[in-house]
Amino acid sequence: MVAGSRIVAMGHYQPSRVVTNEDLTKTLDTNDEWIRSRVGIAERRIADTETVADMAGFAAEKALAASGLTAADIDLVIVATCSSIDRCPNVATRVANKLGIAAPAAYDLNTACSGFSYAVGSADHAIRAGAARNAIVIGAEKLSDVTDWSDRKTAVLFGDGAGAAVMTGVPDGEEPGVGPVLWGSAPDKGDVLRIEGWRPYIEQEGQIVFRWATTELAPFAIEACRRAGVDPSELAAFVPHQANTRIIDGIVKRLGLSENAIVAKDLVESGNTSAASVPLALSKLIERREVPSGAPVLLFGFGGGLTYAGQVVRCP
Ligand SMILES: CC(C)(COP(=O)(O)OP(=O)(O)OC[C@H]1O[C@@H](n2cnc3c(N)ncnc32)[C@H](O)[C@@H]1OP(=O)(O)O)[C@@H](O)C(=O)NCCC(=O)NCCS
């Protein structure tokens, strides 16, 4: 019997091409000052040849190598993405094939920017139920494929990349490392953020999304902490979806974090990578050893749907 699950290792991948705000001014009527002050982004990575599955696979390979497990141990692969162009086969089976994972349960999950926390919650439930022993959970996006590069309102916001976590069961008697997921949606507001088949580019009513994120989400983040039995003041780090530093600051103001808590702001160098943003930011915090192993970290994603999800995890 298992008591729950934990994340044992993370990995991430970003394309090598850096696109700065200055680069965007060559084709768009925009400027570095506007982008930095309104959004917080300085640069982003844009994929040339890599697909969503390629980036997901690279991130997953790194996470698996760091986990001490092998492909033979993995029996569940979940990929959170909203930008995979191919409908079939799904990204998860492509990743499994690339990594030599022979016969896992493998599915994609689309809740846009909250996808990674939804996927971690789903994998945790599968492990608790005995439907899986070890899982790889990935957030991967190639948003450059669904960006209208002539629209300054959206083109300055997004980037490409992937982050992955290896999750495993925690035996009875030990403390689980993944807290209960808090997940939900506001479907009545779904149309304010869209990538529709007939015009497959990101469109949004930016101010409505901004208002929703800054006024309605903090109580859900606090509730995710409560469900894990962790007071927000005890968090070592907060890793929210990386959409806008003003949104992050607005949520942080209401959370009651300690002064020493780290707040991830990876969007400065990565842009908004939707489902990839939380695992990318978390993987980098771990790589830079900024959060001690075992310390509580609140993950919190939000975006298209509109959807949101979060949970407290123990840092691997
Ligand atoms: C997108 C966002 C940064 C726009 O900021 P904003 O302060 O709402 O800006 P507005 O859209 O009101 O535009 C203000 C002005 O800047 C202009 N503008 C828009 N994009 C610009 C750009 N890239 N460069 C320069 N000027 C720009 C607008 O045309 C407008 O000009 P006007 O006043 O002359 O009409 C902000 O609304 C936001 O972050 N929303 C949340 C969106 C989000 O995070 N979505 C993903 C969630 S997962």
TrEMBL record:
Annotated SUPFAM superfamilies: Thiolase-like
Active-site annotation: 113, 241, 272
Domain (Beta-ketoacyl-[acyl-carrier-protein] synthase III N-terminal): residue spans on this chain: 107-175
Recorded metabolic or biological pathway in which this protein acts: Lipid metabolism; fatty acid biosynthesis
Entry EC no(s): 2.3.1.180
Keyword flag Transferase: yes
An annotated Gene Ontology molecular function: 3-oxoacyl-[acyl-carrier-protein] synthase activity
CDD domains linked to this entry: KAS_III (cd00830)
Region (ACP-binding): 242-246
Enzyme class: transferase
Keywords: Acyltransferase, Cytoplasm, Fatty acid biosynthesis, Fatty acid metabolism, Lipid biosynthesis, Lipid metabolism, Multifunctional enzyme, Transferase
Main location: cytoplasm
Record-level GO BP terms: fatty acid biosynthetic process; secondary metabolite biosynthetic process
Ranges for domain Beta-ketoacyl-[acyl-carrier-protein] synthase III C-terminal: 225-314
Subcellular location: Cytoplasm
Reaction(s) the record says it catalyses: malonyl-[ACP] + acetyl-CoA + H(+) = 3-oxobutanoyl-[ACP] + CO2 + CoA
Assigned GO CC terms: cytoplasm
HAMAP family in the record: FabH (MF_01815)
Domain topic, free-text comment: The last Arg residue of the ACP-binding site is essential for the weak association between ACP/AcpP and FabH.
Subunit and interaction comment: Homodimer.
Biological role stated in the UniProt entry: Catalyzes the condensation reaction of fatty acid synthesis by the addition to an acyl acceptor of two carbons from malonyl-ACP. Catalyzes the first condensation reaction which initiates fatty acid synthesis and may therefore play a role in governing the total rate of fatty acid production. Possesses both acetoacetyl-ACP synthase and acetyl transacylase activities. Its substrate specificity determines the biosynthesis of branched-chain and/or straight-chain of fatty acids.
Family to which this protein belongs: Belongs to the thiolase-like superfamily. FabH family.
Protein name (record): Beta-ketoacyl-[acyl-carrier-protein] synthase III
Organism: Actinoplanes cyaneus
Gene name of the record: fabH4
